[in-house]
Amino acid sequence: MTDRQNKNSNSQQHRAAFTLLEMLLVLSLLLVLVSVVWPAVLRISSSNRLRQSMQDLHSAFSAARIRAIEHGVNYQVYLELGGQHYLVVPVDQSLLGLGTEASGSSQASNGQAVIDGKLPDEFEFSKTVSTTVSQPAIPFEWLAKLPNAKDWKWMEASFPITFYPDGSAAIDLQHEVLKIDQQVARIQLRGLTGNTTISYDQEKSK
User: Fold this and answer.
1) What stretch or stretches form a coiled coil here (predicted)?
2) Which domain holds residue 59?
3) pTM for the whole structure
4) CATH for 145
5) Could you tell me which residues come within 8 angstroms of residue 75 by beta carbon, excluding any fewer than 6 positions away?
6) Per-residue pLDDT tens digits for 30-50
């Protein structure tokens, strides 16, 4: 092999090695970029899930008020303290479909009368109740015949938020939604008007 051929061969090897180093450098930069950006992406995704769920919760409170007015009976909202679930139920056995033997009738009534919602798994309702509860809870037996009743046993340890047919509510309420022991959102209820609002706190990083 001539000297010129050797030089060309060495030059090609150097170019190949340099290209490999470039690829490794680019990959390293991408990994650093992903490690910086990915936590922010997760926070944004989590925040969006929370906001959607809080809007659903707000809609559930509004539905309880509207249905109380329309049906002329009290409706109650239950929050799973230290958990993610909530329920809206009428304080009227006939609206729950009880007394009917056909399961289809109970399911239809359940779909019309009971709202069953849930926060994202990384969030939970505060265990602390910042109000004095004056209204009795409905007996759990009223719900026992409904299809999803086995998933609602938690409500026996909860408290009722009652809406009246005149559109008002029994209590003023401010209840927090937490993430890893940090308050990130709250729902507020004005008893006199029955109106609810939602507010959000800036999440603090540990």
Assistant:
1) none
2) 22-99+109-200
3) 0.73
4) 3.55.40.10
5) 64, 65, 67, 68, 88, 89, 90, 91, 162, 163
6) 888 877 777 777 777 778 888
